[in-house]
Each structure stands twice: as C-alpha cells, then as structure tokens.
Design brief:
By secondary structure, the chain is mostly helical. The chain has one domain. It has eight helices and no strands. The relative contact order is 0.20.
Length: 150
C-alpha cells in the first residue's frame, strides 16, 4: 500500500465513520505513521482547533501537524528555538504547496451552511502526505503504515 493510499483510507474513515475534525485527524494519522502515542485528551483538545472553531483562521491541518512536530521535537530533544525553526519551515512548506495557512482561503468556497461534510477531504490527504514527507526528511524517521510498506 502506498503512503497516499494509506492516508486516503485513514482520512476517509476519520471523516465519514467518526466525523473527526481536521486537526485531530491529521494529528492521529501522523501519530500512527511516526509511532507517536497521542493521549486521548490531546486529540479531544485538537477538536477545537478546526480553523479556530470554524472562524476560518489557521488551517487545522497545519495545527494538527504543528502539534505532532512539537511532540516529535521533544522526543528528539530539540530546544525551543530549534522547534520554532522546524515549525516555521513546515509553515513555509505548507504555504509553498497550498498558497496560504488560512482555512478561509484554502477551503473550497469558504464556509457555507449548504456545504457537504468534509469538503476538504482531498486536501487533507495532500496535506498529510506533505507533512509525512516533511517529517521524514526533517527528523530522519521512516514512516510506518499498519497495512504495508510505503
């Protein structure tokens, strides 16, 4: 199974079977891929990040990844300044790929009451693959997929 197939399957399940918001989805899947335990309370806290409660501010896919970068950075013994640099580099990579960090600019059509659920599913897959590749390079970690090799 490829990384993209794995992420696509996990995102679809998180969104459609569990109705999990973006930040918690990204955090959980990246935690699985990099074998980082995520306490249930941390996942619960991530539910409120969803574009600042759907206000449209920072994309929750970025927020979930930044949370994982913090956990991995601490696991690797990075200083606060080193961790800031890693997070800044990720934000630059994300902006370079998607053009913005703002949910209201990234979400197709912004926010409307008539939106179907999980409008950003395809982008979520792309963002988690980007994050996986970034983390793999940054921390020299090998991604692990529970259903096969990358």
């Amino acid at each position: 199974m490829t990384l993209r197939d794995y992420v696509s399957s996990r995102v679809h399940g998180a969104y459609h079977d569990q109705d999990t918001p973006c930040a918690a989805t990204a955090l959980r899947i990246l935690g699985e891929i990099f074998e980082q335990d995520i306490h249930e309370q941390v996942l619960q806290a991530a539910w409120g990040l969803n574009g600042a409660g759907k206000h449209g501010d920072q994309c929750a896919l970025v927020e979930g990844t930044l949370m994982l970068l913090g956990l991995l950075g601490h696991r690797r013994g990075l200083s606060q300044e080193e961790l800031y640099l890693v997070c800044r580099e990720y934000a630059q990579a994300y902006t370079g790929r998607f053009g913005s960090l703002l949910c209201r600019e990234l979400r197709p059509g912004g926010f409307n009451d008539s939106d179907p659920p999980h409008l950003c599913e395809a982008m979520s897959v792309d963002a988690i693959v980007l994050a996986t590749n970034f983390i793999t390079a940054q921390f020299e970690l090998e991604p692990r997929l529970s259903h096969g090799a990358v």
